[in-house]
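User: Fold this; tokens only.

Assistant: Input:
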Amino acid sequence: MEKIEKLGWNSPSHNYDEEKIARVITVQKNRYRVTDGEGDFLAHISGKFRKDASQPIDFPAVGDWVVVEKLPQEQKAVILEILPRKSQFIRHAAGSKTEAQVVGANIDTVFIVNSLNQDLNLRRMERYILSAYDSGASPVILLTKKDECTEEEVKENVALVEGIAFGIPILVISSLTGEGISELLDYLPLRKTGALLGSSGVGKSTLVNRLMNDVVQETKSIREADSKGRHTTTHREMFFLPNGAFLIDTPGMRELQLWEGEAMLESAFQDIESLEAECRFVDCSHETEPGCRIKEAVEFGELSTERLESYRKLQRELAYEKRKQNKKSMLDEKNRWKQISKEQRHKYKNRR
């Protein structure tokens, strides 16, 4: 038990053989690396697992606890089952298909990383905040590259972020000078798991190197013209920090397509939800109705039009995504019954 507890295992009552429990530490396309606390194993999923998995969310993600069959002499393992996740950061999978993808699982703290340069993007940050709340993990905002900004620029940008991140810790750090790193480690105590999420060029890989006291991740400079980054991390990986915590690094995501989170809009947009409660009419559309508190807040500068439009856009996007998911579920169910009918006809034909 002790060896998997070192990996963050905290399930006192379970029916699993502890010798078969491992944690996924690297996912690179269809290849996995797992550890049981004593050794690492290259792993692949079993044939039964692959047959039963119907969508990307069913496959192992970094941070997952899995049941494996080990082949110690070859340093390989077969993944048989994923154990229940206590949290999972989900996004819409790339491509046109209506599918979810797990970026990381069993995360305690999601670090939403953005740099303090001209690529600071509040609207993108709102998406990450919404998804972080929906994941079941606690969000913390990291504003990196303090060493590249003046004190006045730092204050201005922190104030902007405070206007959208109610109740969320905001840490200003510099991986170059080490400023803010000790405060960051307070959110990564022994045997807890964090995940770095953000777009390319915000300094995630540089931060990992700083926390590891070693160069474990490749880094590239950003484009000077627009402060936008280039992809360096190409796969998801979990690192074992010197203090006994775990940190998942992920490839940069320029666009975070939402999968779900409708129930978390209230947490992510507490200011707008509070104002809506003060409208004269319960079903106020905030367009032409008299006594609209939202319109009043925009008029007097309490609420920016950009934040209100972002809120409405996310509402529309989540409603559209829900309709697509419902349609897909109906089609999947229809196809399932078609397959059952086909198999039954085949059996009846063979009996004759």
